[in-house]
């Protein structure tokens, strides 16, 4: 039997003016934002670091540090470790589970100033970049070399590669290029006591014992601060096409996926799902151009299919053959398909899917459940949740206005979103543990790709058994015995 770990220490310190004086010896003054003397920033300056993208979580940090080098990160952590000051690593602050926001007055360590590419090899496609590089800027960096990043997500304009690796972000390309556990070759990490762990290898193969970097991928800043990432970038496809398929019934998604995989095989690069509510909201809030009325009529949901291949004519022929097969079937799985005819239409079709998160946030306050469940249950899970809220008397315009589902079919990942007028305890209590129990009944995951953050620490047991949880606690205790790294996140 495994022994229980002792509880993490809780007697952590707050930053003082003396600490600020010490940080001023490590960083230049513009790299310190603090309401404390001698910096005297305003609360407004701290606002972007104390509040998350959804405006759901807020912290009370008095101090934000923005190091420019790994050495500076190391010196900051060494000091915080000695003084037992808790820290929260922050990337682009686009996380959706409250991981990047202090729970109290932890020091925020923003990685925004560590934004240099260290090297790129156009032959192997291996990119080594500092953690604060924004995903879109890395995409732009490798594009002239005919490479792409192995991941893509709606937050690409703000999220950082260090944040992506720390959350093990999935996104829109996972179906084709797999998870970051495969494409990240190495990481450079500063451990909680300031030790620099240099695992920034560019080797494709390295079976020399435990693969330590995997522990940092998806650890959400609880084991150390990632300062550098070595990542394999695939060659850019020569041709990309996309099509939106309108389906009369959700039940057609599964056989459609099978048919599409079978016919498109190696050129299939995305198979993304949005239900009717998600589509209507995307259109309402100007994400992509609405399809023609007759294409939408009678559609219960939509699927966006993308192909990426080596020869345009070949790919177009395959896609056209697929559409012909689908539309000429005795009992067609789709009502219609809208094929992008040019790059603007290609982007517009993608925006209908990628823009749902933005549309939801414009519509109201979102309760987000990022779950892995069997594909066959996607609709059922959304319907059960809606009916449950109705039975609780919460489905009306002053409480919950919409319950919708969208996500990554190929990865079995449903984004169940509940939109409300405000975040209230009553709605929260109606949703949890209800949804977690539903997920557990399907042996699913309560966090498919967004992580645990502070949102789901209490619910981990719905997806992880006792022994796994004990081991996780032991790992945390080993790396961070003083509990200064992102306290209250992942493991409470
Ligand atoms: P942050 O939000 O700043 O931080 C996230 C976590 O990582 C925190 O726990 C933080 O402490 C830690 N962290 C950040 N940087 C470091 C570092 N250098 N070292 C150690 N820890 C660090 N997620 C998906 O998986 N798939 C999607 O398709 C997707 N789409 C999104 C679309 C929109 C519009 C939005 C707003 C979010 C989306 N997300 C998605 C969620 C989010 O963008 C990802 O989780 C992203 O990887 C977070 O990166 P970030 O730089 O913003 O990290
Ligand atoms: C997506 O796939 C993101 O669009 C965000 O993971 C999902 O907002 C969400 O719930
Ligand atoms: Zn997603």
UniProtKB/TrEMBL annotation:
Q: Which domain of life is it from?
A: Eukaryota
Query: Could you tell me which Pfam families the record lists for this protein?
Result: FAD-oxidase_C, FAD_binding_4
Q: Which GO terms describe its molecular function?
A: D-lactate dehydrogenase (cytochrome) activity; FAD binding
User: What is the annotated signal peptide range for this record?
Assistant: none
Which keywords, in A-to-Z order, does the entry hold? Answer: FAD, Flavoprotein, Oxidoreductase
Catalytic activity field: (R)-lactate + 2 Fe(III)-[cytochrome c] = 2 Fe(II)-[cytochrome c] + pyruvate + 2 H(+)
Query: Which cofactors is this protein said to need?
Result: FAD
Q: Which InterPro entries match?
A: FAD-bd_oxidored_4_C (IPR004113), FAD-bd_PCMH (IPR016166), FAD-bd_PCMH-like_sf (IPR036318), FAD-bd_PCMH_sub1 (IPR016167), FAD-bd_PCMH_sub2 (IPR016169), FAD-linked_Oxase-like_C (IPR016164), FAD-oxidored/transferase_4 (IPR051264), Oxid_FAD_bind_N (IPR006094)
One GO cellular component this record assigns the protein to is: mitochondrion
FAD-binding PCMH-type domain location is 57-236
Entry similarity comment: Belongs to the FAD-binding oxidoreductase/transferase type 4 family.
Protein name per the record: FAD-binding PCMH-type domain-containing protein
Organism this protein belongs to: Marasmius oreades
């Amino acid at each position: 039997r495994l022994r229980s770990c002792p509880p993490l220490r809780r007697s952590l310190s707050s930053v003082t003016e003396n600490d600020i004086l010490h940080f001023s010896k490590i960083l230049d003054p513009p790299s310190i934002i603090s309401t404390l003397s001698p910096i005297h920033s305003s609360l407004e300056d701290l606002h972007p670091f104390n509040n998350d993208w959804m405006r759901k979580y807020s912290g009370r940090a008095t101090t934000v540090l923005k190091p420019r080098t790994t050495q500076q990160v190391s010196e900051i952590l060494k000091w915080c470790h000695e003084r037992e000051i808790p820290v929260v690593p922050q990337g682009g602050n686009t996380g959706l589970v409250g991981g990047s926001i202090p729970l109290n007055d932890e020091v925020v360590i923003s990685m925004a100033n560590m934004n240099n590419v260290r090297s790129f090899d156009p032959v192997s496609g291996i990119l080594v970049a500092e953690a604060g590089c924004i995903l879109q800027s890395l995409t732009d960096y490798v594009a002239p070399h005919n490479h792409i990043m192995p991941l893509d997500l709606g937050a690409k304009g703000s999220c950082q590669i260090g944040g992506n690796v720390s959350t093990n972000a999935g996104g829109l390309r996972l179906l084709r290029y797999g998870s970051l556990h495969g494409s990240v070759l190495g990481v450079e990490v500063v451990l909680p006591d300031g030790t620099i762990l240099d695992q920034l290898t560019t080797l494709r193969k390295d079976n020399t014992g435990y693969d330590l970097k995997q522990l940092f991928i998806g650890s959400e800043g609880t084991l150390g601060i990632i300062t550098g990432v070595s990542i394999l970038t695939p060659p850019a496809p020569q041709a990309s096409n996309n099509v939106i398929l309108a389906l009369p019934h959700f039940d057609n998604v599964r056989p459609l996926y099978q048919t599409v995989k079978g016919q498109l095989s190696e050129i299939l690069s995305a198979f993304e799902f949005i239900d009717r509510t998600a589509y209507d909201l995307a259109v309402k809030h100007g994400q992509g151009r609405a399809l023609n009325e007759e294409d939408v009529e009678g559609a219960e949901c939509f699927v966006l299919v993308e192909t990426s291949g080596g020869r345009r004519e070949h790919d177009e022929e395959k896609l056209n053959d697929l559409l012909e097969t689908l539309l000429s079937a005795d009992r067609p799985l789709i009502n219609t398909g809208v094929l992008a005819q040019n790059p603007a239409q290609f982007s517009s079709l993608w925006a209908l899917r990628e823009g749902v998160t933005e549309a939801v946030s414009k519509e109201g306050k979102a309760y987000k459940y990022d779950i892995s469940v069997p594909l066959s249950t996607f609709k059922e899970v959304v319907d059960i949740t809606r009916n449950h809220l109705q039975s609780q008397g919460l489905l009306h315009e002053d409480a919950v206005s919409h319950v919708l589902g969208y996500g990554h079919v190929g990865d079995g990942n449903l984004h169940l979103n509940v939109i409300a007028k405000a975040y209230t305890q009553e709605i929260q209590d109606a949703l949890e543990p209800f949804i977690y129990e539903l997920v557990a009944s399907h042996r699913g995951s309560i966090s498919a790709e967004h992580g645990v953050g502070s949102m789901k620490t209490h619910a981990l047991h719905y997806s992880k058994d006792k022994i796994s949880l004990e081991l996780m606690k032991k790992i945390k205790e080993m790396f961070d015995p003083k509990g200064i790294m992102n306290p209250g996140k992942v493991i409470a």
